[in-house]
Design goal:
about 120 residues; 7-stranded mixed beta sheet; 4-stranded antiparallel beta sheet; about 0% helix
């Protein structure tokens, strides 16, 4: 079992930045890959970024490539999502996930989820 706690969401204007944090209850080394998802009202949950723990390997959805960066801090057991040049269409609840078994962008393939943190981008 692992608990994931997200933080860092908020309201910003278009073009602004936010950094989301996902704190894990155990060492990141025990979690092979972690990911960030988002879900807007009325839409399906979509994977936006993933990081292979312990390796310099990241994956991004096309919609966020070049604007979002996922990183890891082993000392704090925390994964971050730096979001720059935010757009109104980035507005969503953001979740981190762990315990992957399968393709990284499929929510059903993750065993553990955080409670989410809301990001709202105004135009």
């Amino acid at each position: 079992q692992v608990q994931l706690v997200e933080s860092g969401g908020g309201s910003v204007q278009a073009g602004g930045s936010l950094r989301l944090s996902c704190a894990a209850s155990r060492s990141l080394y025990s979690l092979s890959r972690m990911a960030w998802f988002r879900q807007a009202p009325g839409k399906e949950r979509e994977g936006v970024a993933s990081i292979y723990i312990g390796a310099d390997s990241t994956l991004y959805a096309d919609s966020v490539k070049g604007r979002f960066t996922v990183s890891q801090d082993f000392a704090k057991n925390t994964v971050y999502l730096q979001m720059n040049s935010l757009k109104p269409e980035d507005t969503a609840m953001y979740y981190c996930a762990a315990g992957l078994n399968g393709h990284w962008r499929e929510p059903i393939n993750y065993a553990y989820w955080g409670q989410g943190t809301q990001v709202t981008v105004s135009s």
